[in-house]
Amino acid sequence: MRLFNKQQLLILAAILLSTGSYAQHPDHTLNPGHTSDITGAPEPYGALPTARQLKWQETEMYCIIHFTPTTFQNKEWGYGDADPAIFNPKKFNALQIVNAAKSGGFKGIVYVAKHHDGFALWPTKTAAYNISESPWKDGKGDMVREFQQAAKQTGMKFGVYCSPWDRNNPAYGTPAYLTIYRNQLQELYTNYGELFMSWHDGANGGDGSYGGKNEKRKVDQSNYYDWLNTWEITRKLQPNASIFSDIGLDVRWVGNEKGIAPETSWSTITLKGNEGKPPMPGFLEDSNLGSGTRGGEQWIPIEGDVSLRPGWFYHAEQDGQVKTVAELFNIYCKSVGHGGALDLGLSPTTEGILHPKDVNTLAEFGKLLKQVFAHNLAKEAKITLSNIRNKQAGSFGAANLTDASRYSYWATDDAVHSAWAQLDFKRPAKFSIVQLRENIKLGQRIDSVTVEVFKNHKWELLAKATSIGANRIIRLPEPQSSAKIRIHVYAPVAIALSEIGLYLEPELKPMSAQNSDVAYSKTNWKASVSTPSAHTQLELKNSIDNNKSTFFETKSSNYIDLDFGKSLTFSAVGYLPGQDGTATGAIEKYELFSSTDGKKWQKIASGEFSNIKANPILQRITLAAKTTARYLRLQNSEDGLLRIAELEVYK
């Protein structure tokens, strides 16, 4: 990565000042109604959110929709070689999809206007590979427009994602492509109304068709896209849109595609560059992406992104793997409930609508959220506070804790950094969730909290938490009943707590989705590699032990062989990469062979496991035709570490 010149540094400074996230005290013109304007209010502490970030924090839940020719190819990432003729969804209905999202309690959608395959879902003037070349609506359709209008009709917010990687464009990898990409952003940010999000991700460079050349092109992502100038397009054309990316000008990636933030997840963060470089895509120390930094230099909260299904695109074989309502609620509590937002992936079918299972799950999830948070039990309590700021004025008292306002708050005197709120009920209250909020207009002030209940004539610790921020949900292992509850708050400055909530969630069905695939038993199987040793022989069993937490690893072989002990007839093969959070060793390019005698091998499949490093889920290889064989070989087409948690073979 080259050093920034004077012009680039000026652009960077302008961007950082415009976000407000990179300053200790951002311009109040970006943050109207700042609560420090109230007479006697505490001074703001640390990095503060901008107006656009406050709107994003209030949104809390939105959906990202993946629907391109890739759907019709039954792939996760398109190669850029799909014939536009295959894109013709006969029953496409943007309103059905957006309404389903709204029924789930989501407040916005982000539409993937162009994924890595390069196919633009609007009639762009920048590239021929776009929706006008498809038979859908006789080439006169605009799917971005359809989603934008559906969002407007339903009162949902609208955002877009246009992938910077383009596996079709012949200019990709050259300076000419950057102009094309920026012109695409110009079109999207000019012609589709106000956007609430400008969404980006880190996928870039690799195999592609690139105008029919079928080659591999790599780019320096920290340099090639010239993000400092590219993001200026968003700031100029969509000043209210929050920019999401891995480093995040406004919103940062949580660091996984499970949608779950760590137990401690600060909305403030100090970004660090690798190798001493400034923090930019490609040169980012990502060890604190999920956790953030206590007292960090920037306000950049997390987005937890996860798909409703295992993959981001629709696959019929995953119809039995739609996340359950219980799974979604757990993710909600660990994304929105850890101070961030939940971005749920929706995957329309080839017909252009959501599968009934997806629609039903979203509706049931929305009903659950309404049921859980319909009534705050804390409103029934008499709340006593150990200290109240400017008590005579009455601006910062207990009434602010249950009025459902994010920005009215209980505050303590400047010298009081440890205080408690006690809730007394006429009869024991039964609850399983404690929800807390800070007034984040004054920064993330609270270090930690403890929750206690009065039992057997003494206070007993029930739960504790850190990093409160915009929203903190503490789920208890089981419901509790008590007539006295005390919440003790600790901070380095005066406390500014805006809400206390006590709720009781209903009993939910177990968090497990059923897989429709029927897998063969692995009891008598044997695994082998080209260079066996006593060590590898022992670990080889980990690849077929039905235990996802173990794995087999080798640097000396790029393939693994399975001996079933007898011939099996199978239609698909499953590969699960290591589940320990280490992306290294995950197979990205694969070849699959079968054999009847273990000597003569026949290739039966090849391809790529798209996005496997960010989303290390079970990968399914569906065969073109059923195969009968005793031996199976999974080969990594690229040299390197081979890492396997589990292999499956399906009938």
From TrEMBL:
<dbReference type="InterPro" id="IPR000421">
    <property type="entry name" value="FA58C"/>
</dbReference>
<keyword id="KW-0732">Signal</keyword>
<protein>
    <recommendedName>
        <fullName>alpha-L-fucosidase</fullName>
        <ecNumber>3.2.1.51</ecNumber>
    </recommendedName>
</protein>
<dbReference type="GO" id="GO:0016139">
    <property type="term" value="P:glycoside catabolic process"/>
</dbReference>
<feature type="domain" description="F5/8 type C">
    <location>
        <begin position="505"/>
        <end position="651"/>
    </location>
</feature>
<dbReference type="InterPro" id="IPR000933">
    <property type="entry name" value="Glyco_hydro_29"/>
</dbReference>
<keyword id="KW-0378">Hydrolase</keyword>
<dbReference type="InterPro" id="IPR008979">
    <property type="entry name" value="Galactose-bd-like_sf"/>
</dbReference>
<comment type="similarity">
    <text>Belongs to the glycosyl hydrolase 29 family.</text>
</comment>
<dbReference type="Pfam" id="PF01120">
    <property type="entry name" value="Alpha_L_fucos"/>
</dbReference>
<dbReference type="Pfam" id="PF00754">
    <property type="entry name" value="F5_F8_type_C"/>
</dbReference>
<feature type="signal peptide">
    <location>
        <begin position="1"/>
        <end position="23"/>
    </location>
</feature>
<dbReference type="InterPro" id="IPR057739">
    <property type="entry name" value="Glyco_hydro_29_N"/>
</dbReference>
<dbReference type="GO" id="GO:0006004">
    <property type="term" value="P:fucose metabolic process"/>
</dbReference>
<dbReference type="InterPro" id="IPR017853">
    <property type="entry name" value="GH"/>
</dbReference>
<dbReference type="GO" id="GO:0004560">
    <property type="term" value="F:alpha-L-fucosidase activity"/>
</dbReference>
<dbReference type="Pfam" id="PF22633">
    <property type="entry name" value="F5_F8_type_C_2"/>
</dbReference>
<keyword id="KW-0326">Glycosidase</keyword>
<dbReference type="GO" id="GO:0005764">
    <property type="term" value="C:lysosome"/>
</dbReference>
